[in-house]
């Protein structure tokens, strides 16, 4: 690792909306699911599902439609949604701008990398076909931790798998839910908003996109005081 990194040792990458434009596919799937279950989704409901774990998203959809959170019905809905997302992922997932080069840049500078996603392993494996497994030392999925984002568990586990303290890691996120998770774990968060705005706050640094990001940019983001827009 270069001296320029001065303590930054790892990058923890969110997947949906940060590396891949998969939120668009989730958008299709959750809207279709809502219609399948009883009616169209309001924009307010849709915003609540962005960046949520599948369990939380399903709960939001059921509540919005006035459905009982019956475990069997939730399980059926989850299977319906996952099958639809798998179909959509199978067609190939578009990258977010600059994300592929950003992964290569982190590697080129000797930074350890982990994928930290609320998406479950079954779908993450499909997405890794697009991402390329060689970019990551480890991956953490929503169904592999006690509680998904916005809880800190996914980021704590990601840092642990890299053999690092969260404070040595830069998390890269696009959503308020993901940013809250990374922050709760003790990571500095570089936020590249995608679908919805993310509020400023302690430990948060903002960038409009990952296009052209350099190793020095990653190190600077990690070392910046919070609330800075690079
Ligand atoms: Mg995301």
From TrEMBL:
CDD domains: HAD_BPGM-like. Keywords: Hydrolase. The keyword Hydrolase applies. InterPro entries: HAD-like_sf, HAD-SF_hydro_IA, HAD_sf, PGP-like_dom2. One of its GO terms (molecular function) is hydrolase activity. NCBIfam families: HAD-SF-IA-v3. This is Possible hydrolase.
